[in-house]
Amino acid sequence: MSVQPILVNGQWRASAGKETFQAVDPSNKQPLAEKFPISPWAEIEEVIQHASEAAAAVRGWPGEKFAVFLEDYANRIEARAADIVAIAHRETGLPVEPRLKSAELPRTINQLRQAAASAREGSWANATIDTKSNIRSMLGPIGPVVVFGPNNFPYAYNGIAGGDFASAVAAGNPVIAKGHSSHPGTTLLLAQLCLEAAQATGMPAGFVQLIYRTSHADGYKLVSHPLIGASGYTGARHTGLSLKEAADKGGKQFYCELSSVNPVFILPGALKERAQAVVDDFVGSCLMGTGQFCTNPGLVIVPEGPAGEQFIAGVAAKFEAAPVGTMLSGGVEQNFRAGVAAIQKAGATVVCGNKPADDKRYCFANTLLRVSGDDYLKNPHGLQTEAFGNASLIVVAKDLAQMIAVAKTLEGNLTGCLYTDTQGSDDAAYNQLAPLVREKVGRLLNDKMPTGVAVVSSMNHGGPFPATGHPGFTAVGFPASIWRFAILQSYDNVRAHRLPPALQNKNPSGKQWRLVDGTWSQADVV
Predict the structure, then answer these.
(1) Which residues are part of the catalytic machinery?
(2) Which among 7, 112, 287, 308 is most buried, taking Cβ atoms within 10 Å?
């Protein structure tokens, strides 16, 4: 079969790369027929040049132009939903319902539309006007953005359709999408729709481009290139850190989501009050999507004693009874097994699972591990190894003081949760634990498992290292996610007619919020 084309400067064309790869159906371990190219550096550099030209072409464009493009694209995805779901199911093994059709694809469409609304309204730019000094500032586009899509979200984080893509476009930046090898066909179809939308709405030829794969060395050159503004990455910690190091050396912004074990503290009152409900919450969260979520609860701290043992037994029984889901790829399964082995080596013992489940597909038994609080504190770093998949480690803490000690060892995480009773018996313990967990996580939850991310403006899908590369930003939620792909631009005594519309005295939309002499306002400047 012929090799699939890449998208360069508004045209589908054959890659100059001689090496190819194929996606694999994880449900049967069989390679899919389509072949995709690995782009050589000369081709990547050409893509970068076209993106830079597109950035110059759209400089100064109103947010309305980008909003129209994003909305047109969202509509095209919605119209082709059945085809998009079918190909992603084949490439990832993720279930059609509810995951792909009713959850992730609608979320992706919603993200594009929310980004469009933010671009149109304009308040994301934080326009600031000081009339006394006549200094005015706002956030503006940073330049071409590279987006690396991950394996576990073929739509919502896809390099040419996901949240990073939508945020970069809303800020007025061209996007170079780097597809993921697990679902290149899905990315190709999305890119076809994206190009149709770009052409229908008058975007420059190089505004959206797609390559599927590069060598590691070329990836480092890409993120550090002088013409690149920033990169967004979701994926494995080791790869992300290597790319970040290259970007840092080049003085380029690199926003990365790397790894997280998402600790959950279950306090005694909660177990006494509703033990079975907490078991059900945890099992549902941990095994959802075969545990292949960045917010999967991988570390659970329970109190020592009969209630804690009852919780562990209840979870183990459900783990053993639940069907074993399909993993995204052979690499995911291999890394998962290595993670479980590393947790055992660090001192944990297996409660259930830790064995092959079906050699005809990529999968591994639902696995539960445990360790005492004393042993955990001897090796907290090793026992926070991420096993990305359907596994979790339970730490049995002998008292509140040991829970506090565990909390103090936590690395940075996307989320942290505390389960408490409703009658107040856990309040004192919560008041001691919550501040410690709060400083280690991006999102703090109470009586709710962390799996799932709401696309709302108050969401923080970020956190301290190593959850992400920068604790001050989120990959989900508008307008905050847009700020990653913007720079602060200040204008000092610039004549009024030369200012960007957002900084002129008249509010360009009448709806944009601007900070005028220290007060947020939608009014014109008098």
Answers:
(1) 257, 294
(2) 112
